[in-house]
Structure formats: structure tokens, C-alpha cells
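Collaborator request, handled under Task 6.
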Amino acid sequence: MRHSIRILLSTLLFWSLTAAAVETRNPDEHFFSQSLGDFSEELQVARDEGKKGILMMFEMDECPFCHRMKTTVLNRVDVQDYFTEHFLIFPLDIEGDVEITDFSGNQLKQKDFAFQQFRVRATPVFVFFDLNGKPIAKYTGATRNAEEFLLLGQYVADGHYEKTSFTRYKRDLRKAEAP
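C-alpha cells returned to the collaborator:
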């Protein structure tokens, strides 16, 4: 019994120290960029700021996986710093009735943009766009952890999407790191 309690206490101490070591901030304030909903204009802002492109997170209010991403990955300072250095980042509600302007200058509702142009039905979906508004990479679902999400950002920012899939990219990295 005492051994079990020691193991439990050690585990709790490990997790509390690990959690304390990761600095977090509100993703609404520190991850997502401010937008008026004109994505043709946002492309110019991204170019002017020297970004690699635009990242959109297609989400819905009641999505537990979106919530998990925001509370365990997108809230991390290291994730926020990396992504905001390389991308403008916008959330987009796949059920939203808010009017936006797409990359081509067409006005439509968020939900129509999500479904008609990208066939988004489940969330979260992360779509990366180049500086011309062309989708260049798409990831459906929540990543396993912040490290995998950072790899996804690196995969796009460094141009690996041009040569290989994200799955193969991760596999090749694991092979290169193996002794």
C-alpha cells in the first residue's frame, strides 16, 4: 500500500513539475491574429510582415477537440511564438453566419467558405495558405501534442510540404534521430 502511495505521489509531483515548466497564455490574445474578415487584405498584410503564409483553424463552438487544442497546445508560449513568427493565424467558425471576404475578394458567410471551398465538416481543420491564397497543406483533427503541432508548422514554414507528406516527414525525422 505504501509503495502504491509513493508511486502516486511521485507521479503527481512529476506531472505538476512538468506542467509548471510549460508557460501558457490565452490563445485568443496571443495565437490568433486580429482580422476584419477580409482575407484578400490579410494576404497583403502577411506579405508586408514577411510571413510564410496564413493559417486558418476551422472550428466550431462545441468541438471538444478544438477546445483541447486551445487548452493544451495553442495556449503554449513556444507554440504561439513559433507560429506568429511565421504565419498570420485566423479562427473560422464552420457554422458561422458572419460575412467574410475570401482570398479572391468574394463575400460569403464563414460556413459557406468552410464547406463550399474546403469541404470542412468536422473540426478542427488546419489549412495553410501561401501568400497568393492557395492552400498548401491541410491537417484534419487535433494533433497528439504541442510537439507534433510545432512539427506541422516547421513542415510548412520550411517548405517540406512541396516534397513530401506530413506523415512521411515525421517518419523521416524519427529515422534521422534514431541511433
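The cover message to the collaborator said: "Helices lie at 2-21, 27-30, 39-48, 64-72, 77-86, 110-118, 146-157, 166-177. The CA atoms of residues 81 and 137 lie 20 Å apart. Please let us know whether this matches your experimental observations."
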